[in-house]
Amino acid sequence: MNTNQKEKHSRQKDTMSSSWLTSRNRALSSVSTLLLSILLCISEQSNAQSSPVFACDVTGNPSLAALGFCNTGLKIKARVTDLVGRLTLEEKIGFLGSKAVGVSRLGIPAYNWWSEALHGVSYIGGGSGFSGQVHGATSFPQVILTAASFNVSLFQAIGKVVSTEARAMYNVGSAGLTFWSPNVNIFRDPRWGRGQETPGEDPTLSSKYAVAYVKGLQETDGGDPNRLKVAACCKHYTAYDVDNWTDVHRFTFNAVVNQQDMADTFQPPFKSCVVDGNVASVMCSYNQVNGKPTCADPDLLSGVIRGQWKLNGYIVSDCDSVDVLFRDQHYTKTPGEAVAISILAGFFDGDPKKQLYGDLGPKDVCTAENQELARDAARQGIVLLKNSPGSLPLSPSAIKTLAVIGPNAKATVTMIGNYFGDPCKYTTPFQGLSETVSSTYQPGCSNVACKEPDIGSAAALAASADAVVLVMGEDQTIEQENLDRVDLYLPGKQPELVTQVAKAAKGPVVLVIMSGGGFDITFAKNDEKITSIMWVGYPGEAGGLAIADVIFGRHNPSGSLPMTWYPQSYVEKVPMSNMNMRPDKPNGYPGRTYRFYAGETVYAFGDTLSYTKFDHRLIKAPRLVSLSLDESHPCRSSECQSLDAIGPHCENAVEGGSGFEVQLNVKNAGDREGSHTVFLFTTPPAIHGSPIKHLLGFEKVRLGKNEEAVVSFKVDVCKDLSVVDEIGTRKIALGHHHLHVGSLKHSLNITV
């Protein structure tokens, strides 16, 4: 669905394969599970309503009390069996769309399953919306910027606020209970229009984000594991990261993915969603993988999601993707067969105001605390990429006049990316900066396409000001769902505008990049007149306040890039349709992401600058890990490069089981308070096409000036130090592994 086209906002996802919300029981059949969900949590949203409509309203219709499925004293399976027995075939079929048809004779109202909550409650899908009672909801930064904070507790806190606002809206009939978020696809190619929706290019970061956000959405304050606050959905399963690039379209694209890349890059976030996050649902994607539509592949659905990972929930198809199987991919003979394939490959208490969260309402949406969290999330994610001596932070007392220039300087809707709802309010970059110092605005370009820049006016303003802030970048006309980029340059004549304004300026020049993806801004990186560069993603409703907080030093920047910024030359030789992660040197293919690409970058994954300095010192880490093998193990009598990452040897390694601890001392050696992400990378032996390095874990710490702290990482040898071989099997690489933290390196030898 294209979020800029209103007529598509209400398009139904009539291809759902099953669902439920509260009690989850793997033993139930697919149809029974679906019907149970409708029984327990169904509602009908309408902007005119002041309360939700629900099934088994025995107060409004006392005759329903005689129905077995409305008897809360019965066991769930008995209630489901009763309901199934009462439904006609046509009524059962009516439950299989995104808009489930109601059954009035049984007191079951209609329900729209499709709501979105990517970074706040959205109106997209039609299951949720805004009305006179609830005018808007807190709009947090787009996911890619939140991920740049590398703060797991923040990920979960945002999810918790979003679900609280969703339940508050549900209680007045303005929202559903099933939200098709988060997007945990890997940001594999910098041109992808939907990369902004994801946590970035790294499987570890994406997995940690997925689990934390899902828990924030789903977990109840009462702690009942059988009940959900709202139902989350991890999408788009799997290997989906091409929308519309040159002549390649997601509806017809066949992602050719080898077993190795599938296992160590594309699948981990989804596995974490299911196994660690206990997500309620997984959405299969539009594309094919190795010749099979993902929504019709029993190996990916029944075999992996349900069989290996034990999904305790339902599988849903993406917008019209079952129709795509028939109409665009020609995978089935008839539309009916297409529906049947999806269904076969997947599986399917009273007044909510009297239950947990029943007291929530409009007063709990857009609270001061929630809006402050949106501001803080943006601050934590903002990445400082360049900072010359004497540039940032700007001194409010020294800066008497500030020139704010650029097509995104007065951005509103641009700041909330896509899959948005109506925000509580906007604070533009210009407004945020103007609250601190006297500021003057010039757009420089009429829009981000910047075909005819007004360089003269912008340069004149820059020459008259004490400092300049250029707010450039993109919006959804350049990158979005169904629109991938074709190059990595700033759009149009933005580079020319930036260069000429910087040349005319008499004081510091701060370049602020607002975007989802990265750019080749080598020209700005190397221009001495451009004294600072900040990437602010799409910073959400409070973006202007957060940008000003960083520029004027009220907040010390601590965000780190969650994706590589490549030079333009990279995309000129790498087709977006090539899914291979690892390099193919004989054919000139350089590989993808920091894990496999060793070439030139503009900025690297994890790059960050701060207004202070942090030092690391290793306290504890083993030099040797010895794995104990059974007498019959073949590697006892012959040399092996690797071992299977399962087996008794995984329980018999040093330091108790297969794990050990890495301890580090982290010190703030600067003169101001700041937060810092401690990254623990590992470089395995060069076997099985192993990564150049891989993110093992990360921790965010906040330290006052000259303060220090101990940061610990628990390392599981078989899980964290294993690599994936050519057929997708996890192996423990024997030999020397290198642990990296900042400039520190530590060698660790794994032997048998």
TrEMBL record:
Q: Which InterPro entries match?
A: BXL, Fn3-like, GH, Glyco_hydro_3_C, Glyco_hydro_3_C_sf, Glyco_hydro_3_N, Glyco_hydro_3_N_sf, Ig-like_fold
User: What keywords would UniProt list here?
Assistant: Glycosidase, Hydrolase, Signal
Question: Which domain of life does this protein belong to?
Answer: Eukaryota
| Boundaries of every Fibronectin type III-like domain copy | 676-745
**How far does the signal peptide extend, from start to end residue?**
1-48
Q: List the transmembrane segments.
A: none
Instruction: Output this protein's name.
Output: Beta-D-xylosidase 3 isoform X2
- Biological classification of the source: Eukaryota, Viridiplantae, Streptophyta, Embryophyta, Tracheophyta
